[in-house]
């Protein structure tokens, strides 16, 4: 059993900040459970392009307001508390943040915590052995 409070991650390697967003990773690949679990905060007034070519991501918005744009077809979706989106086809997407968005995210395969978005918004596929 693992029990941790979000604040315990502050300032650790599991606390990743990238200017427009901050992600605290509660569960990582090293936990050996087949997924990672993150608490992520996206800052108001930002536009964020992502593309998880190597991962499936599920996002649950619990605070904030914005718009999710599917860059493949232009579909737009309102983001507000209670919204879930699943990027099950490695969808290229943009998150436009009106009010700070707070969300819980899962990744499969799990991230190690060392991943950094490349110029296309992609995380490399890393394992604990890399």
Describe the SSE topology:
Elements: E1 15-17, E2 21-27, E3 36-42, E4 47-51, E5 56-70, E6 76-79, E7 84-87, E8 92-108
Antiparallel strand pairs: 1-2, 2-3, 3-8, 4-8, 5-6, 5-7, 5-8
Main features:
130 residues, mainly beta, Jelly Rolls
Main β-sheet: number of strands, strand sense, barrel status?
8 strands, antiparallel
Mean pLDDT: 93
Number of strands: 8
Q: N-to-C terminal Cα separation, in Å?
A: 26 Å
The computed structural class is mainly beta
User: How large a portion of the residues is in β-strands, by DSSP E?
Assistant: over 45%
Give the count of structural domains.
1
Q: Over all CA atoms, what is the radius of gyration?
A: 14 Å
Q: Specify the helix fraction band.
A: under 10%
Give a structural overview:
Belongs to the ectoine synthase family. Pathway: Amine and polyamine biosynthesis; ectoine biosynthesis; L-ectoine from L-aspartate 4-semialdehyde: step 3/3. Keywords: Lyase. Its EC number is 4.2.1.108. The protein is mainly beta and 130 residues long. It has a single domain, classed as Jelly Rolls (Sandwich), CATH 2.60.120. The chain contains no helices and eight strands. Strands 1, 2, 3, 4, 5, 6, 7 and 8 form an eight-stranded antiparallel β-sheet that branches. The protein starts with 14 loop residues before the first strand and ends in a 22-residue tail after the last strand. The mean pLDDT is 93.
């Amino acid at each position: 059993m693992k029990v941790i409070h979000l604040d315990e991650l502050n300032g650790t390697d599991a606390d990743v900040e990238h200017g427009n967003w901050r992600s605290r990773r509660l569960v990582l690949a090293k936990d050996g459970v087949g997924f990672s679990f993150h608490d992520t905060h996206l800052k108001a007034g930002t536009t964020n392009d992502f593309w998880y070519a190597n991962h499936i991501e599920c996002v649950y918005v619990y605070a904030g307001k914005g718009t999710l744009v599917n860059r493949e077809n232009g579909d737009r979706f309102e983001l507000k508390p209670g919204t879930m989106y699943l990027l099950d086809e490695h969808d290229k997407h943009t998150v436009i943040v009106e009010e700070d968005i707070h969300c819980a995210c899962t990744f499969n395969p799990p991230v190690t915590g060392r991943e950094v978005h490349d110029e296309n918004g992609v995380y490399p596929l890393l394992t604990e052995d890399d």
